[in-house]
Amino acid sequence: MARKVFFSFHYKPDSWRAAKVRNMGLVEGNAPVSDNDWEKVKGGGDAAIKKWITGQLSGKSCAVVLIGAETASRKWVRHEIVEAWNAKKGVVGIHINKIEDHNGKQGTKGANPLDKIDYRDSGKKLSSIAKVYTPSGTTSKEAYDWIKEHLANAVKDAIRIRNEN
């Protein structure tokens, strides 16, 4: 049985790549939100967005952060990571920049968003505890195949790490 996860990513530039990962069927993810639905949520302001994120995380055991070029700078991605961690869910990041977009282009490797999040008041960053993976290979197919082979175990490991911390 596939684990239930929440996929976090920068929507506009990375939705194509994220869809490829989500469609692997290795884990059960949150339903994709349409542009119209997201605009309705955003129209309710920050409180509505936070409520939506909390609802999306409900029933999930892990947040999988699909990291593109600008993911680490996204306010709501960082919020999703913090909310997942605080709700005792696993958190794992996977760089998806090598997967081709709808134009057949690979992206630029982005910064680790877990480097932007303080772990409690320890002076450490969440990246010192939770893992972020960079798929091996140079081609889109190689990156896709690496993710397909390792995603389920990365989620399992993220949940174990969270249970220990």
Provide the spatial order of strands within the biggest beta sheet: 2-1-3-4-7
H/I helix tally: 5
Name the shape in a single word.
globular
Strand content: 15-25%
How would you sum up this structure, described in words?
By secondary structure, the chain is an alpha/beta fold. Helix content is 43%, strand content 15%. The protein has a single domain (4-164), classed as Rossmann fold (3-Layer(aba) Sandwich). The strands form two sheets. A five-stranded parallel β-sheet has the order 2-1-3-4-7. A two-stranded antiparallel sheet has the order 5-6. It starts with a strand and ends with a helix.
Map the helices and strands.
Elements lengths: L3 E5 L2 H12 L5 E2 L5 H9 L1 H13 L4 E6 L7 H12 L3 E6 L22 E2 L4 E2 L6 E2 L6 H25 L1
Parallel strand pairs: 1-2, 1-3, 3-4, 4-7
Antiparallel strand pairs: 5-6
Helix pairs in contact: 3-4
